[in-house]
Design goal:
It contains 17 helices and 24 strands. The chain has about 700 residues and is α+β, with helices and mostly antiparallel strands. A 5-stranded antiparallel sheet has the order 4-17-18-20-21. Strand 14 and strand 15 form a beta hairpin. The protein is flat and about 115 Å long.
Length: about 700
């Protein structure tokens, strides 16, 4: 009978054996993760129900609170499962017992990975799938549910797989915990940031797939090499380098932003400008320093002394000025609405009197796919009924839908949305509290409605000015109409084509001004925005009889925010020269608005930092006798990516001890047989008689 030898062809059941071994040892983490994830999601679900039942909660169409739990819970569970599978047996006798098998280490790795993903599926997949079913079950949430809403849970789950492989990589790396060992999760963090900020679902899926590929290759290469970086193949070394480099970037952003926010931000002096209107109908320039209004100027730039006192200034800017904001359709699609993590492309929540009024017991949504308004009970979460152009219908039976394209208000106009619904062929006035709807404006034949807005219903203004405090403004392809709620026309003028060139229009009525003029205010950007650019604005003042009283032109200009060179210095350590150079080429229009000093500081500082990083790389590589090809590669990367490359090189490469060469006296590494400076060999040690090997 032939005796079995130690090294034989691995049996076909080797993969199955390591799979069952990992499941037996680590399935407890599946149970712990299942319990923890279920509790976390249950808490978030109850919190979401309480929010919807609250009389002041307004759903903005972005991700549910539950998806905060899926992205964080999946990441944490995947990371801990990967660490649990490797930390306890990656060194010493346990590693020797595992690795010295008649099985290739790659087979051992994939057995571990398959078991880990099964454990992760139980710990995360089951509770996430359950909460998605709960969200879609009628009566649980007071809003229309479509299965597209569950797409973020899919990408969050896949991102958790990236964190799982990052956990395997971190557990296997031969590095110190307090140094660079934990930096291997950088690729997973980058994946989480991108998949939660990307607009499209499939790009987010591709990001997760790329993250799995990079983190998986890094984990496999590190496992096969027993944690050593230098023994890995080029592809796995590149994957490890990318993971660690991204980890250093995340750590650098945190390390720089926290001290700067605590120490430097109070010393920054930002100066921005906004144009607004006072209660007496005067257009003024408001100057903000550090987001606080500090000065009021006229259109010629002269300070207005009557608004020097802060109390007087705030009163003049807030009292008795009514406005209706209209947002014109952009020629480009609204990418924010197209985000797969948002429901803004599916339905829009409607409010009765703008964002300042309470919601009441019913939630109203315009459902794009159906062309109807759905009403849900905030208490029971059940569908109450539907509203169409002919009125409200209780129960699940749908009435006749609205026709034409729904003109959803955008930007600042959305926050000021009054009780109107705008389509291409009609404007409807809503009374959601009384479940009533009526047509407020009908265009002429051949005329198309571009946008419409309503003044916010302010009880104090209604008590003071009556029905004069409620008006609507409509912009069509042929004219602009301003009317009261009873149909009385306050202003009607021909359309002059301005909607083609401007983003928004505001109809402003300063009620304290003499004669109560009406201002038609066009802006190239949304109203109420303050930044480093003043957008082009055109304002026309009309008398009550419709004649033009004044015209105002505010040209576009770029304003200096006053941020010091320290801001550029901090930014350059995180955003390298190569990325800033590409951004400058892509955003040439923004760069052209900057002053010469801003351009020089914006590119010279990151270039200087990159050159210093390349010098540091060269000095370190030369001192430790890296191959010339390695030296050039690291230097080129340092010029493009700055300090990130130098820190990544320190974290990845092995740095042997150095001692003085007996021949030339210069420091040489001890891992080479000949000195890299004088090419002399090390002298053999002195024989003392204890040697057990003889030289031949």
């Amino acid at each position: 009978m032939t005796q079995p030898t130690l090294f034989v062809t691995p049996p076909s059941g080797a993969f199955k054996a390591i799979l069952w071994k990992e499941l037996r040892e680590n399935f407890k983490w599946a149970v712990a993760g299942l319990v923890g994830m279920t509790a976390w999601l249950t808490y978030k679900a109850q919190f979401l129900i309480q929010q919807f039942q609250s009389g002041n909660y307004r759903y903005n169409g972005d991700s549910y609170v539950i998806f905060e739990a899926t992205v964080t819970g999946a990441a944490l569970a995947g990371l801990l499962i990967g660490l649990a599978q490797t930390v306890m047996e990656n060194r010493g006798d346990k590693w020797g017992f595992l690795a010295h098998r008649p099985v290739h280490r790659s087979t051992l790795f994939w057995g571990k990975a398959a078991a880990g993903i099964l454990i992760y599926l139980v710990a995360v997949g089951l509770p996430v799938a359950s909460v998605m079913i709960w969200m879609g079950w009628p009566g649980n949430l007071p809003l229309p549910f479509e299965w597209r809403i569950a797409l973020p849970a899919v990408t969050d789950f896949l991102c958790g797989v990236v964190f799982y492989f990052a956990g395997l990589l971190t557990g296997m790396r031969d590095a110190r915990w307090y140094a660079s060992r934990t930096l291997g999760i950088g690729a997973a963090f980058a994946c989480a940031v991108m998949e939660t900020t990307f607009y499209g679902f499939w790009p987010a899926i591709l990001v997760c797939a790329g993250g799995i590929l990079v983190a998986g290759a890094a984990a496999r290469g590190t496992f096969v090499a027993g944690g050593q970086y230098g023994l890995q193949a080029k592809a796995s070394r590149a994957a490890v380098g990318l993971s660690v480099g991204l980890g250093i970037t995340v750590a650098g952003i945190i390390a720089i932003n926290i001290p700067m926010s605590l120490l430097l931000e109070p010393t920054w002096e930002t100066r921005t400008t906004e144009y607004t209107m006072t209660a007496d109908g005067t257009i003024v320039e408001m100057v903000y320093e550090n987001n606080r209004p500090t000065e009021v100027k006229d259109l010629q730039g002269r300070p207005l002394e009557q608004y020097k006192d802060p109390a007087t200034r705030n009163e003049a800017m807030t009292l008795d000025v009514l406005s209706a904001t209209l947002s014109f359709p952009s020629p480009l699609p609204n990418r924010w609405e197209q985000r797969y993590r948002s429901t803004q492309g599916l339905f829009t929540q409607l409010f009765q009197g703008g964002h300042s009024s309470p919601l009441g017991p019913t939630r109203w949504y315009f459902v794009n796919r159906l062309g109807l308004i759905a009403a849900y009970s905030a208490e029971s979460g059940k569908l109450i009924g539907w509203m169409g152009p002919d009125g409200f219908t209780e129960g699940p039976v749908m009435p006749q839908p609205f026709q034409g394209t729904f003109k959803k208000p955008q930007g600042f106009a959305a926050s000021q949305q009054g009780p109107i619904l705008v389509f291409e062929d009609a404007v409807y006035r809503l009374d959601l509290g009384q479940q009533r709807i009526e047509k407020a404006f009908q265009p002429r034949p051949g005329e198309t409605i571009l946008a419409a807005g309503s003044s916010d219903e302010n009880p104090a203004m209604l008590a003071t000015y009556g029905e004069q405090a409620r008006f609507e403004a409509v912009s069509t392809s042929q004219r602009v109409v301003v009317q009261l709620r009873d149909g009385t026309r306050l202003l009607e003028l021909p359309q002059d084509g301005k909607p083609k060139n401007f983003y928004a229009m505001q109809v402003v009525r300063p009620m304290r001004a003499a004669g109560r003029p009406i201002f038609v205010w066009y802006a190239a950007s949304g109203f109420g925005w303050r930044g480093s650019a003043v957008q082009e604005q055109q304002i026309t003042e009309f008398t009550p009889n419709g004649t033009i009283a004044h015209r105002y032109e505010i040209p576009a200009r770029w304003t200096d925010t006053g941020a010091p060179w320290r801001e550029h210095l901090a930014e350059s350590t995180v955003v390298p020269f190569g990325a800033q150079l590409v951004a400058a080429v892509v955003n040439r229009e923004a760069v052209n608005r900057m002053s010469v000093s801003q351009r020089i500081v914006g590119l010279a500082i990151p270039l200087l930092i990159s050159l210093l990083s390349a010098a540091a790389v060269f000095s370190r590589a030369k001192a430790y006798a890296l191959a010339p090809g390695q030296q050039r590669l690291w230097m080129y990367l340092a010029i493009l990516l700055g300090p990130l490359v130098f820190l990544t090189m320190l974290a990845l490469l092995d740095w042997p001890a150095r001692e003085a060469c007996p021949a030339c006296g210069r420091m040489r590494v001890v891992t080479r047989e000949h000195c890299e400076h004088c090419n002399q060999p090390f002298a053999p040690p002195t024989m003392d008689g204890t040697e057990i090997f003889e030289l031949t």
